Amino acid sequence: MPYHEFECSTCIPERKKHAVVKGPGETLADALPLGYLNTIPGTISERGCAYCGAKHVIGTPMKDVIHISHGPVGCTYDTWQTKRYISDNDNFQLKYTFATDVKEKHIVFGAEKLLKQNIIEAFKAHPDIKRMTIYQTCATALIGDDIDAVAQEVMEELPDVDIFVCNSPGFAGPSQSGGHHKINIAWIKNKVGTVEPEITSDYVINYVGEYNIQGDQEVMQDFFKRMGIQILSTFTGNGSYDDLRAMHKAHLNVLECARSAEYICNELRVKYGIPRLDIDGFGFEPLGNSLRKVGLFFGIEDRAQKIIDEETARWKPELDWYKARLTGKKVCLWPGGSKLWHWAHVIHEEMGLDVVSVYTKFGHQGDMEKGIARCEQGALAIDDPNELEGLEAMNKLQPDIIFTGKRPGEVAKKIRVPYLNAHAYHNGPWKGWEGWVRFARDIYNGIYSPIHELSKLDISKDEIPTDKGFKTARMISDADLPEAVRNDPNLRRYTGKYDMVAELRERTYPTFPQKGAQEAAA
Q: Where in this chain does the record put each Nitrogenase/oxidoreductase component domain (predicted)?
């Protein structure tokens, strides 16, 4: 198993054990980089901290809550509006963010009075909101502010409000994953079991590890509703504070993102005996298998199968159309934790993409194990990379596109590599059958964008094509497609120049200029 040493990191020899190349016939024990360790000094990591993991990832998607950070204003600003956690209460949690704005004088003399003042002011400014979460940051943790005591004092003075305290300073773990654990355990310890829900179905679940990125939760909610299943609470996308206090009454915990929320599922099993079932909402086959598992648990497999048959028949032709044009394209899969292994195999099997690299900034060894096991031989696996290592990897691998966050994505654009936002999506939701086709369309548009092709030209010397040369305008003729696609009987019907134009116009969003298509057809 060859460790991969980046040229930019030769001055930090410890980094060599954090990147490996998946070789032929190797076991996971041979091809596993070190992970979930404290960042090596001098590497200029792009990781998030434990506070970020608690507030930004888990807490903020709760919709009817005042989310207030007790610390310097920069902490809350960095975790505000960077993901599309939409909600059905006019996106209250996206519009507003709250901070006590701790200054130097508060560090010297204490900031508990400031916190209480801010809590009361926030409730007065938003009288319809009666719930609050307070997040502790490094500064106020180091000076020893007793946030729990302040919260209890306010609840005694304002009996109609309820406050949850999350002690998750940035230094509470090696990465933001430490914050996931902190808020999971604090929620079940302090809030679960304090509200009794109304049960309306014989089949009741908690949908855990789902954050409603651009409506993902609503897509899955529709499938469960069609199966006759009641979602008692969603932890935490579009989730209600009081619904999440009633998690103890579910029959089953359905877990989507194991990296961020397995902790609360495990504790609910220990404390209340609620079983855990892991699912995957991405990709035709994984999603179908997931709904079958949920149906099998409740004895309603036929309801799940009906949805699978209907949705597959509706969307499979369009997915195959995109697969014919994406087969053989190289992708760097650089998302957060669970998408590393949710996507690694299925984008290859169902879209034809070749994964040439995987990485994670905060994932554990288990994330790397599953991710590396599911990607192709020769893939470069990296733990906690920095900007220079990312640039070096892209220059070496020459991917056609990368899936990552906004910061490394904008860096990629500078070297003419298109990216899709794996954390907040480009045109989501991406879950469900239709969502997976939408994901494929975004990949296709990213790779074949005329603007992206133009960005590669040197306008000082290169001729600028005006009426030819862009694959998007020509919609990719047979000659442009890989031989494996042309010889595949399952994809051959989708390789004609315009054989699905009319159908695509009827059934999905336009993926090319209609005027150009009409001229070409003529």
A: 49-447
